[in-house]
Every structure is written in structure tokens, then in C-alpha cells.
Amino acid sequence: MTQQIGDWNELTEWWTAEAQEPAYGEEVIPLFFEVLGEVGGRTLLDLGCGDGRISGLAADRGAKVIGVDLNLDLARRASRGHPVFLNRLPGLACVRDRAVDGAYAVLTLEHFEDSPRFFAETARVVRPGGPLALVINHPVYTAPESGPVLDPTDGELFWRFGDYLNTGRTRDPAGGHTVEFIHRPIGALLTEAASAGWLLEEVREQGVGARSAARDPILAKHGGIPHLMALRWRRGHTAGGRCSIRGLEAEAAPAEEGLLKQNRTAAEHPVDRISGILDGAFEGEVDEYIEEIRGR
Ligand SMILES: C[S@@+](CC[C@H](N)C(=O)[O-])C[C@H]1O[C@@H](n2cnc3c(N)ncnc32)[C@H](O)[C@@H]1O
């Protein structure tokens, strides 16, 4: 079953609690910033920004962050720290071509439909030479029917791959609701990104952290099983159909006209482009608009 837009508005409390788990601070955040690299002075899109905790940390490192999310509650929280667009990803229809210096998505790609469109849209809005950084749940971990298998005879833990090789969906309980993860094999993801003009620079795969293993005897048995994956690409430019990184820095200039294509309100946008800067003056209209989307 396809996740409806309203579903994430029911997952606010679940995600807020998840992000307070020690592993998020100990494992996800450090991995992300190691892969993202230097951000000082750069304008970055945080795709699926949630309550803005990653955006805040990126801003502490000197980035100018603009959040994008469809969860109204989380977006409101994030908007206390930086501008936020209400927008259903992977579409970024309201953002100008080459408008930003880079983009990132932390633990969100698994929730977006249409990953080829995600890579194409980010490639369109990030200027040549700019980065795209992702942290995802490792695809070995997200495959439908994958999971740990404990050998009762000696307590050894094995990993069942499940349906790793195909794209699929898993649904997990999430605080009285259900959260859906879209599984994509690594080969599919890398090919989609390359087709959109993203040049791969770094991939990191990470297992259970030492502190998580010390807290949980089952996780301690996971040994070399990957849990997280982080990737960084750089936007190439295409010349004669071939993707190249030569001369990119010379092209590195964000659009001067600003980020948005047009200064429209959310209510004026077509239904597939829920967009608008979230600020105090805007909230009523956004609420009405979200209700309209839910009712479709
Ligand atoms: C697991 S949370 C991660 C939040 C944030 N990146 C962090 O690490 O704290 C996933 C986020 O993606 C957002 N999200 C899910 N599907 C989305 C979509 N199609 N468009 C925009 N945001 C989406 C959710 O509202 C939620 O804030």
C-alpha cells in the first residue's frame, strides 16, 4: 500500500522519540557530517528536514540551510531555526535550477517514492560542483523479509537477505501507527544517481556502534552486518552526453534571483507542488492546504 501524505503527520511523536535514541546521536549524526564535509558559507537544502536538528548542526558549521518536509508539525519546529518549505519530495518543482550549493537527506530517501526523480531533481537544483550527501538505512537491512536469525544451538547470529535484489516495501510499527520503508538495492541506487549526473565520491558502510553493542546483547552479535550507509556525490555537468567534473569550480555560482521560481503562496500551487515558505503569516493557509491534500 502506498503511504499517503497524511501518514507522516501522524508519525511526529514516533520520530521525535526515535531521534532521541542514543544511536542517532552516536552513529547517524557523526557519520553524516564525516561524509558531508566542509559546508561553511554554502546554501544547502535539507530534504526531509524533520524538526531541523541536522539543519541546526549544519548551521553551526556555517551553512545556510533551507529545510524541506511535508510533516507540518516537524516543519513548524524546524522553521524556528531556518526557512522551511512544505513540499512533497522527491519533487522540487518550485526551486530554480542550480539555486543551491548542495543538498542532503538523512534517513529520508527510504520514504520517498520515485528515487530516479529524487536524483534528477536534486541534480537540477544543485549547481555543478555541489554535493549531494545521503545517510540511509543500509539496503541489506531494509530488504523485505530480511532479518537476524539466531542459531539456538550455539547462539550464533546470521543475516537473512530476504528479497534484497528487488525494490520492495516494508512496514514497521511506529508508536501506534505504521511507517513504510522503500527498499532499493545498492546497484539500483548507484545507477539512478549516475544517470542523473551525480558523480560518486565517497561511500561508507557502518555496522552497530560500540556503545549500542554494549547496551544490547542481540545487537552485539550483529558483528559485521551493515546498518547504515552514507554516500556523497558531486554534481557533474554534461557535455556531449558525457558527465564530467572538469571546470566545475568555475561554474560554481548560485542563482542570483533567489531560491524560488515564483513567490506564490501554497494555495496557489498545483496540488502536486505543496510549496511555500513556512512562517507565522503563512500557517493558516498551509493548514487548509494540507487538509485539502488529505482529502484527495
Ligand atoms: C526519519 S525522519 C528524518 C528527519 C531528519 N532528516 C532527521 O534526521 O532528523 C523522515 C522525515 O522525512 C519526511 N518525509 C517523509 N516523506 C516525505 C516526502 N515525500 N516529502 C517530504 N518529506 C518527507 C518526514 O516528514 C520526516 O520528517
Describe what is shown at a glance:
By secondary structure, the protein is of the alpha/beta class.
Task: Compile the SSE list and pairings.
Elements: H1 5-9, H2 12-18, H3 22-36, E1 43-47, H4 53-60, E2 64-69, H5 72-78, E3 84-86, E4 102-106, H6 115-125, E5 131-137, H7 139-142, E6 147-150, E7 157-160, E8 168-174, E9 177-183, H8 186-195, E10 198-206, H9 210-215, H10 217-220, E11 228-235, E12 237-239, E13 242-244, H11 283-294
Parallel strand pairs: 1-2, 1-4, 2-3, 4-5
Antiparallel strand pairs: 5-11, 6-7, 8-9, 10-11, 12-13
Helix pairs in contact: 6-8
Bound molecules: S-adenosylmethionine.
List each distinct ligand once: S-adenosylmethionine
Identify the strand order in the major beta sheet.
3-2-1-4-5-11-10
If you average the pLDDT, what whole number results? 81
Question: What is the CATH-assigned architecture?
Answer: 3-Layer(aba) Sandwich
- Beta content: 15-25%
Bin the helical content.
25-40%
Report the radius of gyration as a whole number of Å.
19 Å
Please give the number of β-strands. Answer: 13
Number of domains: 1
Strand and helix order: HHHEHEHEEHEHEEEEHEHHEEEH
Shape summary: globular
Q: Which structural class matches the secondary elements? A: alpha/beta
CATH classification, class level: Alpha Beta
3D architecture notes:
30% of the residues lie in helices and 24% in strands. The two termini are 16 Å apart. The protein has 296 residues and is of the alpha/beta class. α6 packs parallel to α8 (186-195). The model is unreliable at 1-6, 239-257, 262-275, 279-283 and 289-296 (pLDDT under 50). A 7-stranded mixed sheet has the order 3-2-1-4-5-11-10, sandwiched between helices. A two-stranded antiparallel ribbon has the order 6-7. A two-stranded antiparallel ribbon has the order 8-9. S-adenosylmethionine is lined by residues 8, 15, 19, 48-50, 53-54, 69-71, 74, 88-89, 106-108, 111-112.
